[in-house]
Amino acid sequence: MRIIKISLLISFLAITVTQIQAQPKTLSERLADTAMTRWKDSWELDRTRTERWSYDQGVLMKGIEGVWYNTANADYFRFIQRSIDRFVNDDGSIKTYKLDEYNIDHVLNGRLLLMLYKVTERDKYRKAAELLRQQLKTHPRTSEGGFWHKKIYPSQMWLDGLYMGEPFYAEYAALYHEDADFDDIAKQFILMETHARDPKTGLLYHGWDESKQQRWANPKTGVSPNFWARAMGWYGMALVDTLDYFPKDHPKRDTLIGILNRLAVSIKKYQSPRTGLWYDVIDKGSSRGNYFEASASCMFVYALAKGIRQGYLAPYSFLPVAQKGYQGITQQFIQIESNGQVNLKGTVSVSGLGGNPYRDGSYDYYLSEKIVTNDTKGMGAFLMASTEMDLAAGRALGKGRTVLLDSYFNNETKKDFSGRVAPFHYKWEEMPNSGFSLWARIWRSVGMKPATLNDAPTAENLRQAAIYIIVDPDTKDETSDPHFIEPQHIKAITNWVRAGGVLVMLGNDVGNSELEHFSELGHAFGIEFNKDSRNRVPGVEFAKGLITVPDKHPIFSTSHRLYLKEVSTLAIKAPAAASIKDKDDVIMAVSKLGKGTVFVLGDPWLYNEYVDGRKLPPDFENFKAARDLSKWLVLQIRK
After folding, report:
1. Are 505 and 599 in contact (CB under 8 A)?
2. DSSP-assigned letter for residue 529
3. What would the pLDDT profile of 472-505 be if each residue is shown by its tens digit?
4. Catalytic site includes residue 209
5. Rounded to whole angstroms, how far apart are CA atoms 533 and 538?
6. Residue 157 near residue 144, CB atoms below 8 Å
7. SS3 letters for 226-243?
């Protein structure tokens, strides 16, 4: 009987642990899972057709990319990579793609190529992206320099084309330091607003024909007859995504932000007060046959929420619009089947202008297009909106305060993608294994604004920071001109901590970090790096890097199995206290000074290689730990 009781107890405990560890998936994860099941083996539902390089895929994969960033579940990354690898050969050529078709839709997927190149550093993705950039160099244009939508649609600009071309163009220009291109990028948005915006409603017509020869074109203005909601959604998403890469000091940056604000005002004006949604033909809500359309509603929510997060749009004016819109989307368009699968209803399959059979842009034409469930464009837009709203939910915690990452004591350099010498190793924008791009995303999810300090810390420049992070100070072997932590730096930092700042010190094992001077800073808080190397992990023997978190830990409340390798252990004295110990070694420590808090660990730890889910076995919880730590650090802010 005792054996039976013990067995039952063990079974109960196992079930309980499993239930605790099993986190319910969000709507965005479940919809992404639906997509990965639906298009597991082919992008064509009609198996008699041949797969082709298409923007539809790109919209969905951009949505799934956001789910990967929010979860660090590498299944999402691998789906994107497999999908792109179906088309991209080792030499960078792209199956089914023809440059001389001059279809701007085909450029969109270049954004996935750039992401894959940044993460994996595989040349085939770079070469394929360069091929798409070549298209833009010779793409036909209007007399004022606007990209034609397609070669088969001469002299025409469509709102859709701004999303297909400009975010990729901007990201490529930023990556390769092609700064002059930003004038051309801004021109595309300005031309579209100049020619397609209706001054009475503030809405933008779907298309504009410079030649005024199309049957759908107004003979005086060249614009199409109606305001198609998804076209405006493409335009809004294009603006917020392009601005991610637009230089802060560019004279046209404020112009683009002004265009976004005018667009946001019109989006707000035509939101249904009852449902929070938007109609397919956006200004004709009371007309016969019109309906609420999913993809446009998702795009508007995404553009507004991201515009607010990035500081382009006023939260008090537009956040309620985004929140009401997202609520309406989940209530009206999300369908949950009995097996748990999540579907998205209510997306119009396509709408265009001209072509054969001819699309005249009339109201009746827009309503004639088929409405489908689980359309890639709608699913991708929902995933983008959902992950952006997840970020918005954390805004109240961090309140938009700054988490400042040192790039003065850690100032290693190497040649970047364009061949220029640039800082690298533990940087916010760095997407390969060595970067902190996933941690930057986590900081945004708790309402903080990541920034970088390239200069020595002073009382003045630390004033901007609520949290200051120093990682892996350079040795003489890592840079020809290392910046050591000196007494004046220690004074500025300790005074800042005493006044309520939160300091994070992440070292490294002996030989890979300058610990002598770093310990001098640590001494101000009762902490010293032991200059050892704990948790050596040969090859893929990941279990040797396991650190187990005690139950009810004040920092790591949701994460229990941490991976740390080659760590410098710590020696502590008052006011410091051990936060994590393992076999009598202090792995992490916390110290209090005045109003401030200091967290110390002898390892960079939260860089992409051990956070983004692509390398470690899934039972390690470094991504959860990064979220736990970030939230806890925010709660320590007293400034």
Report:
1. yes
2. E
3. 999 998 888 899 999 999 999 999 999 999 999 9
4. no
5. 13
6. no
7. CCEHHHHHHHHHHHHHHH
Question: Of residues 105, 160, 406, 474, which has the active-site annotation?
Answer: 160
**From CA 402, how far away is CA 461, in angstroms rounded?**
12
Separation CA 253–CA 312 (nearest Å) = 11
Question: Per the structure block, which two tokens stand in for 461?
Answer: 């420049």
Residue type at 548?
A: T
47 contacts: CB under 8 Å, gap ≥ 6: none
Taking CA atoms, 131 is separated from 98, 372, 494, 596, in Å, by 10, 33, 52, 52
**Torsion region of 351: left, alpha or beta (phi above 0 gives left; psi -120 to 50 gives alpha):** beta
How many alpha carbons lie under 13 Å from residue 311 in its C-beta half-sphere?
Answer: 11
Sole residue written with tokens 């994107």: 80
Burial class (CB in 10 A: 0-12, 13-18, 19+), 421: exposed
What is the predicted pLDDT for the residue at 242?
Answer: 98
SS3 assignment for 280-297: CECCCCCCCCCCECHHHH
Instruction: Map tokens 């798409």 to a residue.
Output: 132
149, 234, 560 from 162: Cα distances, Å: 9, 7, 45
The three-class DSSP label of residue 601 is: strand
Burial class of residue 343 (count of CB atoms within 10 Å of its CB; 0-12, 13-18, 19+): middle
Residue spans of the chain under pLDDT 70: 1-23, 45-49
Q: Which helix (H) or strand (E) holds 594?
A: none
Which tens digit of pLDDT belongs to each residue from 261-275? 999 999 999 999 999
**Which residues lie closer than 8 Å to 618 by C-beta, 6 or more apart?**
none
Separation between Cα atoms, residue 474 and residue 408, nearest integer Å = 9
Q: Which two tokens stand for residue 38?
A: 């639906």
Residue 243: C-alpha distances to residues 97, 169, 191, 384, 562 (Å): 28, 11, 17, 16, 36
* Rg (alpha carbons) of the chain, rounded to whole number: 26
> Is the CB of residue 66 less than 8 Å from the CB of residue 73?
no
Contact between 583 and 600 under an 8 Å Cβ cutoff? The reply is no
CA-wise closest residue to 235 among 197, 273, 200 = 197
Burial class (CB in 10 A: 0-12, 13-18, 19+), 86: middle
For residue 572, the surrounding DSSP H or E stretch is strand 570-572
Which runs of consecutive H residues, i.e. helices, occur in 270-357? 294-309, 315-332
Specify the pLDDT at position 85. 97
Alpha-helix residue ranges (DSSP H) falling in 451-567: 459-462, 487-498, 515-523
Give the pair of three-digit tokens for residue 188. Answer: 């595309």
Residue 12 has what pLDDT? Answer: 34
